Amino acid sequence: MRRCFLTAAGVAAMMMAGLVLARETGGRELIEIRTYTCSSVEKRDKLMAVFDAALIPALNRQGIGQVGVFWASGEVNDGNAAYSTNVFVVIPHPDWGSFAGYGQRLLADPQFMKGAAALFEAPMKDPLYDACAGALFHAFATCPQVRRVTDSADRLLQLRTYNSYTSERNVRKVAMFEQGGEIGLFRACGMEPVFFGQALAGDRLENLTYMLGFANKDAKEAAWKRFREHPGWLKLKADPRYKDTANKITNIVLRPSKGSQL
């Protein structure tokens, strides 16, 4: 079973690296993504209800906003139900102190502990979730903060990860989005970024991960069609500087929970 929390040594090392990053980049957020695996859809829904009622308000009390909670289904993933018992949580941290200390602050928050009782009081033989994987990202300079980009009741969030088999290829892939102008093309085609982040820690390095928001399924499909046919994209993807920069792409379409702030 994967652990949800990084080791103290790992956190300390990242905090030292974060001091350098903070000097270089200023207000770029740290973006944490947690992926919870449940044994059934029913437990997934119970876990989401706990996060909506207890986790999101508790994080907001710490000054952490724009918290996203999401679920997936085969219906919005072209029949792929592989993620249907997962809960995805996006937590934007304004700085390293927020990331390093928020877990202990949650445990010291009586409102959170009371609201999350269903999680903490579940018997070991029958937990609400079976495993939790975590990853941490540094927001792109061109997308420094996590943003809510649509208020539609039918909104979809698209989570995409681009793996590179070396760090150098990963840097070039980031450059393709930023200096190459791919993010600008996304916006021009109606594909609004919720966030873009380069992975600092996690189990799928090297990678960059981003999330896009759409009003509904039709809007998503129309926007991607415009992008694929855009002359700027046809030129960019033929640029030899960005050849073979990603060797695997993971794509998951998500729906927000009732209490999600994204």
Brief descriptors of the model:
9 helices; 262 residues; alpha+beta; 38% helix; 8 strands; eight-stranded antiparallel beta barrel
Write the layout of secondary structure elements.
Elements: H1 8-25, E1 30-37, H2 41-61, E2 68-71, E3 86-93, H3 96-107, H4 110-115, H5 117-120, E4 131-139, E5 156-163, H6 167-177, H7 182-188, E6 192-201, E7 207-214, H8 217-229, H9 231-237, E8 248-256
Antiparallel strand pairs: 1-3, 1-4, 2-3, 2-8, 4-6, 5-7, 5-8, 6-7
User: If classified by CATH, what would the architecture be?
Assistant: 2-Layer Sandwich
Strand segment tally: 8
Largest beta-sheet characterization: 8 strands, antiparallel, barrel
- Strand arrangement, largest sheet? 1-3-2-8-5-7-6-4
Element pattern in H and E? HEHEEHHHEEHHEEHHE
- Low-pLDDT stretches: 1-15, 17-25
Question: How much beta, percentage-wise?
Answer: 15-25%
Per CATH, the class reads Alpha Beta
What is the overall pLDDT average? 92
Distance between the termini: 28 Å
Briefly note the CATH topology name: Alpha-Beta Plaits
The secondary structure category is alpha+beta
What is the general shape? globular
Rg (C-alpha, Å): 18 Å
Q: How many domains, as an integer?
A: 1
Helix content: 25-40%
Helix count?
9
